[in-house]
Amino acid sequence: MNTNKKKAHLVRGIKAAMYLLGKVLAVLLIIELALFAFETAENSAQIYMLSRDAFTKRTSVIMNPINNPDTELLDGIFTQEYLDKTQLQTQQKNSSYIISAYDQQTKVPITVVFAWKDTMDIRVENIVQDIAWKFDTSVLDKSEVDQFIESGTFILHMVKEENGRWKVNDITLEEEYYSETAYPTPWADELEEGEAGSKPAQN
Fold first, then answer.
1. Is 112 helix (H, G, I), strand (E, B) or coil?
2. Is the pTM of this model over 0.90?
3. Phi, psi of 134 (to 5 degrees)
4. What is the pLDDT of residues 90-126, one digit of tens each?
5. CA dist list (Å): 78 to 55, 82, 87, 105, 159
6. Nearest to 149 by CA among 76, 47, 56, 49
7. How big, in percent rounded to 5, are the helix, strand and coil portions of the chain?
8. CB atoms near residue 78 (< 10 Å)
């Protein structure tokens, strides 16, 4: 009789332990899923904001390369490898022009970036148009450009660094859009200012 009671007591103890273990495992699973969801949401938000910032600052320093405070922000957005390759921080492409205004439209898709990802490619449409510009008469050695900046569909290649921060490692032009305002009028003594308002022709 005592043996049966001991067995029953043991079975109840085992069931109780299994029940508690199941509850603990369920709580741990919920915590793990919550952390996974949080990191996924954080990655997705970072990628979205980084994509917009990358094109905003890149466009800014290309259009106005002289004494532009945005230049100091580039190393927080792009990898050093990309900056070294493109010379984005030191390029002087449009230094012979004064660009006073432009319309920039950047379309970034909402993308889910799972917690385990450490690289990401995302397609972004960036259009720069309605550029208001004039020649910088203070520049003695003028350097003419074929176009102020490219517009089109780009592929952003991003990497996650060891500190958990994402950066742009490369930008590839997938399809170029053409706009009259991306092409300055050739140098002419009688022409001092150019401005147009046509939209890019998309194929």
1. coil
2. no
3. -150, 160
4. 999 999 999 999 999 999 998 888 888 999 999 999 9
5. 11, 6, 11, 20, 10
6. 56
7. 40, 30, 35
8. 26
